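Q: Here's a chain of 994 amino acids. Please give me its 3D structure as C-alpha cells.
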Amino acid sequence: MSLRFMSHLLFLIVLGITLPAQSQVKAWEGSIDLPTYAWEDDPYPEFWALDGKIVYPYTMQEIISTTHEMKTYKALFLENDFLKVTCLPELGGRIFSVLNKITGKEMFHRNNVVKPGLIGMRGAWISGGIEWNTGPHGHTVTAISPVNGLVKENHDGSATLHISNTEHIFRTRWNVDLTLYPDRSYLHEEIKISNPQEGIHPYYFWNCTAFPCGAGTRFIFPMTLGCDHNGEEFFDWPIHDGKDISWLKNYDRPTSIFAWECDQDFFGCYDVDLDKGLVQVADHRVLKGKKAWTWGQSDDGLVSQEAITDEDGPYIEVQSGPLLTQADYGELFPHDDVSWEEWWYPVYGFEQGFDFATQDVVFEVVNDDRGDIESVNILSTKDYRDCQLRFASVKGGEQSFETDLTPKEVRTFTLAGDHGAEGKFTLLRSNEELIAEFEYPLPLTKVEAPVAEEQKDEEEMSVEELFSEALENDRETSRKRARELYERVILEATNHAEASFRLGVLDIEAGLQTEAQSQFESTLEIEPDHFMAHYFLGVTDFRSGNYTEVLRRADRLIELDPNSSLGYDLKGRAVMRLGRRQQVIPLFEKAAQVNPRDSRAWEHLAMAFFGAGRNSDAFALAKDLQSQDPTALIPRAILACEDPTLPREMFDEAFSFLGAPDFEFLEAQIAFEEMGMPRVAYLFAMPLMVDRYIQSFPTSPVQYFFAAAIALIGSSQQTAESLFEKLGDWKVDYVFPSRPETVPILEVIRKFRPDDGRIALLRGNVLANLGRISEATAEWEKAIQQRPDLAQAHRNLGLCYWKEKEDLSRAEAFYRRAIALRPSDQPLYAELSSLLSDQPEEVVELLTELGPENFRLNDLSEDLAAAYNKLGEYSKTIDFLGDTRFSNWESRKTSRNLWVKALMERGKKSYEEERFDEALQDFRMSLKYPRNLGVGRPAEPNESESYYWIGLTCRNLGKNEESKAAFVRGSAGNWGGESEEEFREQCRNELKRS
C-alpha cells in the first residue's frame, strides 16, 4: 500500500467518512454447454498465388452441419457487482455474454447457439457478444478457432481477461486485456497489435459487438457525415434525404455506416423498447473508426440472420477500430505496434438514448414540445458522492443540483424557468474536481464529403499514382498485383527508390534473400540514407550468417537514427551469434530505452541476460514481461530455467491457456535459436520427447522436423532418429508449414529421409505459400514420384495447372487421380466441377457419381444446378433445388438465381408451345423466395423480366387487367443493370400498346 493511499485513508477516517465496501472482482475458469452446429476444416490448402485466398496455413471451413448437438466449451469468467463476463477462448476468444446484473439484461446480443454461417475469411463465422475481428481481412481467420486465454486477479482488486493470438499468416500478434474493476460498471479494454517479424505486415482490427435490433433501436453517432464500407458514398447524419437514419426501422437493406472524421470520443446505440443501450468511449484521435452495421428490415437480411441463429432474433453491430473504414489497412514495420484503450458499458433508464458520454458518466438531455431543454438524465459508471451538476443557459442564468450518482439508478434533474434550447452542463465532485462537461447541443464540426477522385485506367496513371495503387494492393495483401505494379513503376521511373524497396520487402518475405538484397542495394544507390533498406540488408546478411557485415549495417542504422531500436537490436543479435554475450547487453538495453514499446527488444534483453549468466536480471525482467503478456512463451521459458522442475510446470500451464500450442512453441523455439541459444530453444522440443506430454499436447510433424533438424545440424543423428521414432507414421492432412525458416529445415530433413515424398509435398506447400509456384510445382511432382498415393499432391498440381499454367486437361487428370485416392473428399469434387464448368455433361456425371444426396458443400449443389441449366434440363434444376437447403455466403444469391433462370426458361418454352397456364405458373413462381434456398426478398428486387412475361402470358389467356397490372409493376421496377432496364422499357412499350 502506498504512503499516498495510507495518508488519504487516514484523512478520511479523521473526517469520519466511511469508504464504501467494494468486493474484489472474481475471476475463474469453467465451462459452458451450448447447442452447436459442427463444421469441418477443408483438408486441402489454399494458396494466395493460385486462388487469391489469404488464409494459408489455415484452411477453409465451408462444410457446416444442418443439425446441432450439445458441446462443452472451456469458459473464462469475470464478475463484479455490476457485470458478469463470459469468454469462450475456443471460439476466437469471443465474449459470449456480458450480463448487466443491475437490470438482469444482457449488455450485448447473446446468441444462445453456435451456428456458423458463411461470412468469415475461412467461411464459418458466428454472431453475438464481442468478436475480436483482427484480420488480415474482415471476420478473421480465428473467428471460431482456439486462441490464447486466461484470467488473472490484480493487486488493486480488479481482474483481467487476457486474450491473445499469434496469427499464423503474417505472425503478427494481437493482445486484448479486458479488465473489470470492483467499483466500475464498464469493460476496460487495452488492445495491442505488434509485429515481431522481419517484414512489413498489414494490420486490421475491429472490435465487433452485437446488439439486439428492433423497431425501437437507434444508432447514436455524434457526427454530421457518414460513409459506406469503402468510404465512397457519403450521407448526412442523422437526417438524410428527409429520413432519420439513426433509427434502425428506417433501413430497408443491409447497410454499413462509418463515422467520417468524427471529433467526439463516444458513440453507441439504444433501444427504447428494451430500455437498454451500449456506450463506447475512446480517444477519437487514436481510435478513429466508428462503425455500425445492420442487416436491414427487408427479407433478405432477415433470412441471412436465420443462417446464424435459431431463436435469438435480429441484431446489429457496433464496431470500433483504429482505421477509418473497412477499406483501410494499416501496416506494421518490424518491431512496430499499435495500441489503444477503450471503455464499453451498458446504459438503461433513458427515454431516447444519450447525448454525451465519457468513461465516467453518460447524459441524456430531454426536450419539451417547443424544443427547449426540460431535464437531464445521468447514469454513472461508479458511485460518486456529493456531486454538483451545474447548468448554464445561453440565455443567461445558472442552476445547480446537489446529487449522488450511481450505476444502479438513473438520476433525473428537471430545469426550472425559461432557459431555451442551448446551454452547458458541468458535473463536479465536491472538491470542484471536474467529472464531465459538455455543451448542448454538441458543437459538432460540419464535415463536408471529400471530392471523389477521378477513376483512372492504369495506362492513364502517373508514376506516383501507380505507386499508390501498388502500395494499396500491398496493404490489402494482393501481393501478385502489388508486385506487377511496383515493377511497372520501376519500368517507368528507374530511380524510384520506394518501389525498389517494396519489391525487396516482398522478396525477403518470400525467402528470396539474393533477390531481396539486389532490390535493397538498388534502393540505396538511389537514396543512400534509406533507413529501412539498410535495415533489411542487415537482415539478409544475418540470415546468411554474415554477422560481421551485420555489425557494419547496424552501426549505419544507429548513425542514421539513434532513436530507433532497430539498429541496436540488430547489432545485439549479431553480437549474440558471434558469441560475445557479455558485450550484447548494453545494445539491447539501449534498444529498449529508445523504444520502450518494442516488446521484442525487451524479450531479447531478457534472453541476453540469461545467455550472459546474469540469471537474477533475466528472471526479474522475465517476470515483468510475463505480467504484461501472460501468454507469451519467451519469458516463461526463461523462468522455467530457474529450477529443473519448472519446465514441466511451464508446459502444464501453457497447455491450459494456449490456443495453438504447436505454433506458439515453434515460434519461441525459433526466437531462441536465432539468438544463438540452442539449449533453451531445444527446451520446446521436450513435449516431443517426454511420454507424459504426448497425449495432452497436440503436436504437428513440423515440430519434430525442426527439433530433428537442430539435432542433425548439431551432429546428433541419434536424437533425430529418436524423434522420428516418436513421430511414427504421420499424416499430411492439415500439416501446412508456412514460415520461410521451414524451407531450409525441410531440406535438412529431406537429406535425412531422402525417399519420403511427404517431405517434398510439405516443402512444395511452404514454397507455394511464399509465392514461389514454379519451385512448388517441382516439389509436388517429386512428391508423387516418390509417393503416388498422396492425394493432396495431385490436387495441388491440379490447382497449379488450372490456375497458373492454364492447362485444363492436365489439371483435370490430376484432380481425377486425387478423387480416385480420396473419393469422399467433397472439396475435390467442388474444384473439379468448377474446372469443368464449360462441360456440363462432365459436371453432371461427376456430381451424380458422388450423389447429390451426399452434398455438404453449397458449391456442389450450385454447380450441378448450373450444369442442368446449361443442358436445358430446367425441370431437373427446379426439382433438385426444391429439395436442397442452402446456407449461403453473405450476399450470395446464386442458388435462387439458378432456380429463377430455370423457371423463366421453362416458362418461355411453355409460352412458345402455347401452354400458357403452365408458363404463367412458372413465371409467377419466379417471384417467390423459397426459404430453403437461403435467399430473402431484397428491398429493391429485380423483377421486371418476370412481370414482362406474366403480362404477355395473361394477355394470351384473356386476363387483360392482370396483364396490364403486370406491365405496370414491371415498368416501375428497380434499376438492376442493362438487362433489367431492357425489360422495364419493354413493359412500358406494352402498356402503350394496351
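Q: Can you summarize the key feature?
A: The radius of gyration is 32 Å.
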